[in-house]
Amino acid sequence: MTRVTIDPITRAKLSNLDSYLELCDETGNVIGYFTPLEDRALYKGVDSPESDEELDRRSREESGRSLDDILRDLEKRR
Known about the structure:
Blueprint: H1 8-14, E1 21-24, E2 30-34, H2 52-60, H3 67-76
Antiparallel strand pairs: 1-2
């Protein structure tokens, strides 16, 4: 990933965003998107409804379909 350092004026324009932002050039062409960082404080004190053991079990579970299988099925629908 490339890192770009922005000036304080641009930083002020990007502060306090609560959703995605579309970045455009002076002619209105979209050049990219900006996603603000989550405020982790929003989740402080919130517990998952699933136990740590259940989350561990799910992370070890080998189920589902491979991306190749999904893409193959989607191609068949064209």
